[in-house]
Amino acid sequence: MVQPASPSPMSPGHADAGGVGAVRVAPAIAFTALVAAAFAMGISPAFVRLAEVGPFTSAFYRVFLALPILWAWARAEAGREGATADPGWTRPILIAGLLFAGDLFFWHLAVLWTTMANATLLATMAPVWVALFSGLFIGERVTRTMVAGLGLCVAGGALLVGTSLGFAPERLAGDLAGIATSFFFGLYFLAVRTARRTAAPGVILFRSSVVTAVVLALVAGLLENRWLPLGLSGVAACIAMSWISHAGGQGLLAFALGHLSAAFSSLVIFLEALFAALFGWLLFHEALTPLQLGGAAAILVGIWVARPRAG
Prior knowledge:
- This protein is mainly α.
- The protein is built from 14 helices and no strands.
- The longest helix is centred in the C-terminal third of the chain and has 25 residues, at 232-256.
- It is globular and about 50 Å long.
- Residues 1-22 have low confidence and may be disordered.
- It comes from Methyloraptor flagellatus.
């Protein structure tokens, strides 16, 4: 599935994606990690609603409050018997941090400037960018079954947002922000996949999160003026968003990207939309129509079609 390609700005080497000296795991374990990552990231919109701070400040807290956990994870990896040499602050790690900052920045703008349905659907187009650029940037071939699975997931995502999807001139800026979100997150997948060839997931996520937190702190300081939530419920939401959605969700995603291709792994974005709809139904009593349930089924079928095959 992986074909060598000449080095690119995002791809300094072509070692096995598990990382130098990494222990290989069964694809089923890596896939389970992807599903858990989608679950953890899918609940993040609920935490954003409850955070009681501005969207950019909540994005900053999402990353910043996770740094102690990620630091401990990275230290544990460094002390593990047989651990490989520290690759340092490599270019893919730095790029991943910048790309994730861009992803969160444009995602919150999309939420503010367009409908949630439009923002959700457009943001979940990240796998399209992964499929387009996997061969160019990281030397991974995208198979026909992956393209077929992606098509089913896109159709399922459109059904999942249902009749609330709509485009209007006054929401154009927000829709463009949604597209930008998918672009940044798609390239983030490729950067993390490349970084996993030479570094462990905890190291990658901690160092890239430091970069992301610095960028988002500057953005929040310039564009917003309230740093503290209004009550304990807001504090709890910020902590949960950080520990569950970032440390948990992004951490499991970084782990899985060491063992599965970027194109297949990126389909987790559609599971995130599915879980977000489920949490909206459970927590905010948002209706789930038969059409949306059909979209959820199409996403699941698409992922099954795109699944890795032996050999």
